[in-house]
Amino acid sequence: MAKLQKSIDKRNALVKATIELVNNNGFHATPMSKIAKMANVSPATIYLYFENKQDLVNQTYIEVKAEYTKYAFENFDTTLSVEAGFEHIWKRIADFKLKECENAMFLAQCDNTPMIDEESRQQGIKHLQPLLDLWARGKKEGIIKPLSDYLLYAYSINPLSFLMINQKRGTFQLDKTHLEEAYQSAWSSIKACK
Amino acid sequence: MAKLQKSIDKRNALVKATIELVNNNGFHATPMSKIAKMANVSPATIYLYFENKQDLVNQTYIEVKAEYTKYAFENFDTTLSVEAGFEHIWKRIADFKLKECENAMFLAQCDNTPMIDEESRQQGIKHLQPLLDLWARGKKEGIIKPLSDYLLYAYSINPLSFLMINQKRGTFQLDKTHLEEAYQSAWSSIKACK
DNA sequence: AAAAAAAGAATGAACGTTCACTTTTATTGT
DNA sequence: ACAATAAAAGTGAACGTTCATTCTTTTTTT
Description:
Two copies of one chain form a homodimer.
Chain A (H helix, E strand, L loop, with lengths): L7 H18 L6 H7 L4 H7 L3 H21 L8 H18 L1 H11 L6 H8 L3 H12 L8 H8 L2 H11 L6 H15 L4
Helix pairs in contact in A: 1-2, 1-4, 1-6, 2-3, 4-5, 4-6, 4-7, 5-6, 5-8, 6-10
The structure holds a DNA duplex (30 and 30 nucleotides).
């Protein structure tokens, strides 16, 4: 029997509150007291689950990133063609960013600031391997431009973050049509020219 | 004669210190005292130039953004073809992000977090008009995909931010070759297909 | 000499964290 | 089965620190 006495619910509530508050106010403007209040918990209780504030956001980051990549690669079939495989992953990622908007926003903020320890950031990248493998195959088959993975990511995946941020700000509405257009742009930018 | 007694040098030093410290530690971890120290100024002096900390970063953001767009559109010739005009602007922007790395990093951080007042953010966007005009012309001529400006920006300009951040982190080296490749990807993603 | 600019020390508020204590849950002895 | 007891989880108030900002004094400029 698992010796997990501390309520997983409380932990989850703390992580959830952290995401929401950091999204809306940024790390520097979300005091532990507010996180505790939103999670219906005493400030002191946070320290039963996390070492300190930094540890709280680090762990939150790693967890959300894991969810993200798990979602991205679910049902991914390595026997698919490179193009079909990429479309599948891309659309899963887009899906995640739309459905789990709060989580995705949190990741975007973490990835663009010195909020997170470098170590935790490294940890978060690890699970992206299936996509890198697909790209390697695509390059070998001459279907994908022979670019560094950073370039491929910058042009095919990362733009979604920009769109999502503007979606959240209300300056842009990412509907079905836009999504298909975005996918076409993403694919255009990385597919090899004939 | 201008009634500008307060030293412009001090103000500049404060802005510069703000950029450097916020880049390396984030807004929440850069106290006014450190900004003052780096600018060789008393903490109290900051308040002769800026209302408060928020005003300091807001003004810094607006100034840097203005520099950025000024640089981007310098020598821009509206009689150029859409493709040539876009290449010119794109390369000026890339140039800025490489040469004025600190400034560009600061903008990226501001644009991806709730660090800056919404009002100041709006202020910053205003000067991007020449690029939007060029795109409008490109769409009319059938040279550029008929996408929303947000999509065009997401796929052609914004990827540079991602690359720059990774450059700063040391995980990626953006040299001459990469730059040309990046430009090709940018153009591929927004040019209309024949 | 007056006024502006700058400095450093001072202040009060806010924050992360800890402490002393209570409540809840699990274990033991009968 | 059930008190009695021990251990774990949880709490609210308090602590020490840090920070943004202001106050008082000194320096510089006109």
